[in-house]
Design brief:
It is globular, with a radius of gyration of 18 Å. Helices cover 68% and strands 0% of the residues. It has six helices and no strands. The chain has one domain: Cytochrome Bc1 Complex, Chain D, domain 2, CATH 1.10.760.
């Protein structure tokens, strides 16, 4: 009985970890496909793009202060010169927002 419970626990932990890893990769892949061309692969935009579009790097205090909900809203609705990002599910928007917050 204990062996069976332990096996079930290990299986559940492995499935949960795999789900988390896929979620994180999805955010990174979505960012690379939809965001990096303007915001830069590491969250630091090209100087010309930054000037033309008014994009700040992730290290800027105003960007660091953004909540996940604010980033998600910006992705969905746009802000300033940024147009809404189309074709993303709510889960993808959340994943890309979390990935963006993780950039240093």
């Amino acid at each position: 009985m204990k062996k069976m419970l332990r096996s079930q626990f290990v299986l559940a932990a492995a499935v949960a970890l795999a789900g988390v890893m896929c979620f994180a990769q999805d955010g990174a892949a979505t960012y690379k496909a939809k965001c990096a061309m303007c915001h830069g692969p590491a969250g630091i935009p090209n100087p010309n793009m930054a000037k033309a579009m008014g994009i700040k790097p992730v290290s800027d205090p105003a960007i660091k202060a953004l909540t996940l909900a604010q980033i998600e809203a910006t992705v969905k609705s746009g802000k300033g010169k940024m147009k809404p990002v189309s074709g993303l599910s709510d889960a993808q928007v959340k994943a890309v927002a979390e990935y963006f917050k993780s950039l240093k």
